[in-house]
């Protein structure tokens, strides 16, 4: 089947490579324009564009798909010339104009990293971790005008582990989702797939802002843990110590009977009080921070202008005082 692929970031590369290794023919790639990356802030192609160019596939990088723009007109002419039977979409990042939805016989088939209609929107993986879901997955569906509302063509499930960061979970979903996308294209090519309407209550996972990644230490320990893992690596969970903005990597919830609990209890008993939310307690080998319930042990800390370092090393060098907020 002739396929145009629309995608941009690294997780989408896995799906593109899976399609390239299948019996289908990827005849073109849509991706976002080159962006400035790295320390030098030089213009560089998206990860999807880089792979497509290496494979000699024609790549289009429009600023917009709107019909009333030069870019939009070019996209429409390009699709007419390529005549794809389906357009596979994985984290493309551009709105698709309604008139383009009929540009291929099978439509635009989106690989979305949730079990629709749960967590429609831009950040389903982060939302699943932050809300404490046990199970998530990926869905393929035919795009329509609503936000992730189209009929579902296939799903796979994935267990969310207790220590999963968004990067960990997205990496696994990128591979299982890529297999699902190929299987979906196989089914469409054979005319043996019947799309099913989404059922159940819809929930939403809008795009995440940096402000939303700020840690609220007044939450229970498990909520603080989930929040930090959900926003690792991007945009990165953070907190303030005075006028310093610190990036915080995943923490450890202190479980009764653990070595960390013993070290913490010995120190806290000397103070005869529990740790208040955001209060820092430094021991010989660990740094603990109070929450609404049990304190958590910090993992890695990144101070402004510095590299990430183990929390105990950070504490020895900075001698932190005050309350994280």
TrEMBL record:
Family: Belongs to the Fmt family.
GO molecular function list: methionyl-tRNA formyltransferase activity
Keyword Transferase: yes
Domain Formyl transferase C-terminal: from-to ranges: 207-318
Lineage, broadest ranks: Bacteria, Bacillati, Actinomycetota, Actinomycetes, Mycobacteriales
TM region positions: none
PANTHER family, sorted: METHIONYL-TRNA FORMYLTRANSFERASE, METHIONYL-TRNA FORMYLTRANSFERASE, MITOCHONDRIAL
Native source species: Corynebacterium propinquum
InterPro entries in the record: Fmt, Formyl_trans_C, Formyl_transf_N, Formyl_transf_N_sf, Formyl_transferase-like_C_sf, Met-tRNA-FMT_C, Met-tRNA-FMT_N
Domain Formyl transferase N-terminal: 1-183
Annotated Pfam families: Formyl_trans_C, Formyl_trans_N
Purpose of the protein: Attaches a formyl group to the free amino group of methionyl-tRNA(fMet). The formyl group appears to play a dual role in the initiator identity of N-formylmethionyl-tRNA by promoting its recognition by IF2 and preventing the misappropriation of this tRNA by the elongation apparatus.
Domain of life: Bacteria
Enzyme Commission code(s) on record: 2.1.2.9
Protein name stated in the entry: Methionyl-tRNA formyltransferase
Chain positions recorded as (6S)-5,6,7,8-tetrahydrofolate binding sites: 114-117
NCBIfam families tied to this protein: fmt
Catalytic class of the enzyme: transferase
Keywords from the named record: Protein biosynthesis, Transferase
Reactions that this protein is recorded to catalyse: L-methionyl-tRNA(fMet) + (6R)-10-formyltetrahydrofolate = N-formyl-L-methionyl-tRNA(fMet) + (6S)-5,6,7,8-tetrahydrofolate + H(+)
